[in-house]
């Protein structure tokens, strides 16, 4: 008996190798080609083998409360995996992301059920997945497989489902390999059309809807915006432009407990995010919001930003940074570099995002060719290679805003963006949608500029505008978040009212849709009422030539409905985020016609339900 067990164990080892670990992309987090920063699955596999070898000694009198199910387990399925049960946490939370034409990432978390205080951490959990076009998964299974997860990656599972048909809706499910009856709920996702699909055939000939979000803050409100997008729109893709989670930092450090506990009774767990544990805890907690769960099973997500902390740039945040003499410590006691690595690692574990380039460590900037209808180009204007930003104390940034060599993206990302835009035009894609974090258009707040947005990197902004003009690149649409307010603008060189006419839009080179926050506090102040907010909006649309609509009172999101002829943007305002609900209204809608490179006049059809339109306020006296 004894030797038979050894033989079984070794045979099984040869069969398994590391492929079950390697199938889980979370082990590549954050950098697959960096031995310091990704997991060595051979070592993890060896750890399991050693543990299994422990089973080859007589366990008759051995008791170990940490492994309550191990010795009694039935290992006939797999000698090395845990079969003590899996908890697909958060009612089977799962999500999908970064769809291509024949593949998509599927994600879940499979926590081992534990009778004791600590889950069994020494043997892997084996999770099976399958994907099919049939809503009950009873039809043909297109792809299926098994993958391991362990505590090393917080029991997250991220697999790529391949061999799929382009532009197709799919259904998928995870289950426990050792007990298929334990299964997650069935989720939905889809693939993109292949790059050469004619524009009018994309999405089966129906217009394609993108729902766009930014800035969720758990303690500020319920994430109703996600729920409205999932339940009340036909969103095909969910785009998040940053601040999917927020680590409290200077402004709501635990030394200020009341700010973490809003009147709505939602409090963030843990401290200011600094270690991998902190970032995992934060992501985990945000994912308990019902509306977010609903939006994650409604379709694939394309996300942006690695969510390090407030006012992040390449070597620091508002309250921590690297310096020539070593690191400086944030209030939570972490060195910035470690903090950034921890944030990026947790992000790649928890988010259904692809690792774009194993040799380019922080790269998440990437392009999605959605048939010949759209190129969706996602940038990283936060962590990748951004020169120093406004950190609240370093007011000198105001005087650096015009420096020619200041970069927001880093030279390689900037060159890649230009190449991608040029190629997009060359391949005949109709629309070029650029998703990025921060407001692009100049916003003059009475002589004050937010230098944490593109207003702090003016030469870099001009290079992009020059590339659009010089390359005759039309139909560019910039998407932005970060600001906690709505700003809709024609794209033009700042202060240039010679080539650009703010009334007719003539001379504009594209448009920008900058959306408000899911829950983060209004840019006009938390206690500002609607009439005061609209007064401020009226002043701003009057003072800023390119800005056509401003709205700063409501929290929400927007959708873009894209077809060959036009893009329609609908801005959704949430009625009340202090309780979970799906009540919302459209505060304004805008149309951009193919080839026009400006907002269609009259802007918003001349009719809005909140905020202020430039066309309805008297022009400013010069
Ligand atoms: C599963 O996980 C959820 C969320 O963490 C928890 O509330 C629940 O008690 C767990 N169930 C079991 C059986 O461990
Ligand atoms: C960041 O570094 C600078 C020196 O470059 C230092 O003056 C500043 O105090 C640091 N800030 C924080 C929050 O550590
Ligand atoms: C940018 O140029 C200024 C002088 O105009 C110089 O002081 C600074 O070091 C340069 N920065 C970089 C990152 O090259
Ligand atoms: C635009 O004009 C305003 C007001 O004169 C000025 O403060 C700002 O610096 C100008 N912007 C640029 C990019 O030159
Ligand atoms: C809005 O707030 C302003 C400033 O606090 C106040 O003067 C005004 O009366 C308020 N308006 C309404 C409708 O409550
Ligand atoms: C939001 O709902 C809460 C709870 O029902 C209510 O107390 C509050 O007045 C509502 N706020 C608004 C702006 O309607
Ligand atoms: C969304 O749908 C729900 C019903 O599922 C409805 O109660 C709610 O009013 C709708 N919200 C909007 C903004 O249409």
Automatic annotation (TrEMBL):
Signal sequence bounds: 1-17
Domain Phospholipase D N-terminal span(s) in chain numbering: 96-191
UniProt-listed SUPFAM superfamilies: Metallo-dependent phosphatases
Pfam families on file: PhoD, PhoD_N
Ranges where the PhoD-like phosphatase metallophosphatase domain occurs: 210-571
InterPro entries: Metallo-depent_PP-like (IPR029052), PhoD-like_MPP (IPR018946), PhoD-like_sf (IPR038607), PhoD_N (IPR032093), Phospholipid_Metab_Enz (IPR052900)
UniProt keyword terms in alphabetical order: Signal
CDD domains in the record: MPP_PhoD (cd07389)
Protein name: Alkaline phosphatase
């Amino acid at each position: 008996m004894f030797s038979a067990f050894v033989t079984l164990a070794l045979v099984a080892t040869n069969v398994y190798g590391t492929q079950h670990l390697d199938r889980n992309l979370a082990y590549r987090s954050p950098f697959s080609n960096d031995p310091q920063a990704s997991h060595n699955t051979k070592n993890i596999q060896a750890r399991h083998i050693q543990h299994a070898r422990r089973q080859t000694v007589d366990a008759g009198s051995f008791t170990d409360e940490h492994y309550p199910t191990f010795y009694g387990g039935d290992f006939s399925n797999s000698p090395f995996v845990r079969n003590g049960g899996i908890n697909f946490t958060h009612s089977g939370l799962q999500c999908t992301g970064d769809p291509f034409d024949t593949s998509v990432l599927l994600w879940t978390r499979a926590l081992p059920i534990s009778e004791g205080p600590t889950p069994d951490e020494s043997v892997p959990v084996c999770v099976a997945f399958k994907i099919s076009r049939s809503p009950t998964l009873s039809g043909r299974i297109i792809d299926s497989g098994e993958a391991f997860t362990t505590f090393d990656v917080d029991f997250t599972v991220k697999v790529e489902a391949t061999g799929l048909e382009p532009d197709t809706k799919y259904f998928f499910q995870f289950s426990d390999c050792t007990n298929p009856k334990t299964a997650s709920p069935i989720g939905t996702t889809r693939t993109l059309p292949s790059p050469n699909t004619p524009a009018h055939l994309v999405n089966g000939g129906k217009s394609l809807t993108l729902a766009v979000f930014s800035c969720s803050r758990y303690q500020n409100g319920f994430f109703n915006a996600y729920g409205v997008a999932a339940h009340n729109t036909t969103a095909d893709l969910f785009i998040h432009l940053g601040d999917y989670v927020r680590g409290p930092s200077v402004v709501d450090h635990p030394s200020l407990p009341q700010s973490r506990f809003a009147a709505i009774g939602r409090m963030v767990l843990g401290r200011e995010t600094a270690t991998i544990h902190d970032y995992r805890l934060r992501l985990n907690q945000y994912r308990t919001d019902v509306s977010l769960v609903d939006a994650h099973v409604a379709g694939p997500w394309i996300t942006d930003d690695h969510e390090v902390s407030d006012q992040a740039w390449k070597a620091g945040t508002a309250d921590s940074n690297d310096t020539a003499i070593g690191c400086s410590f944030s209030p939570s006691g972490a060195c910035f570099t470690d903090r950034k690595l921890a944030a990026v690692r947790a992000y790649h574990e928890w988010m259904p995002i692809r690792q774009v380039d194993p040799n380019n460590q922080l790269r998440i900037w990437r392009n999605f060719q959605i048939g010949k209808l759209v190129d969706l180009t996602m940038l990283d204007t936060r962590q990748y290679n951004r020169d120093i930003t406004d950190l609240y104390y370093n007011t000198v940034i105001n005087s650096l805003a015009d420096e020619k060599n200041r970069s927001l993206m880093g030279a390689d990302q900037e060159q890649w963006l230009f190449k991608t835009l040029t190629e997009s035009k060359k391949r005949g894609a109709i629309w070029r949608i650029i998703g990025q974090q921060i407001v692009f258009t100049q916003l003059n707040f009475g002589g004050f500029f937010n230098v944490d947005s593109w207003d702090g990197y003016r030469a870099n902004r001009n290079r992009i505008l020059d590339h659009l003009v010089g390359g005759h690149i039309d139909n560019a649409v910039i998407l932005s978040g970060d600001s906690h307010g709505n700003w809709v603008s024609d794209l033009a060189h700042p202060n240039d009212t010679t080539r650009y006419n703010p009334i007719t839009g003539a001379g504009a080179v594209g448009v920008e849709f900058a959306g408000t926050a899911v829950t983060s506090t209004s840019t006009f102040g938390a206690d500002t009422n609607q009439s005061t907010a609209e007064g401020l909006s009226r002043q701003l649309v009057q003072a800023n030539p390119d800005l056509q609509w401003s709205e700063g009172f409501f929290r929400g999101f927007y959708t873009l409905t894209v077809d060959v002829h036009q893009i329609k943007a609908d801005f959704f305002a949430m009625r009340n985020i202090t309780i979970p609900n799906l009540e919302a209204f459209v505060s304004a809608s805008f149309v951009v016609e193919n080839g026009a490179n400006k907002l269609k006049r009259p802007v918003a059809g001349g009719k809005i339900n909140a905020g202020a339109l430039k066309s309805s306020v008297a022009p400013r006296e010069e």
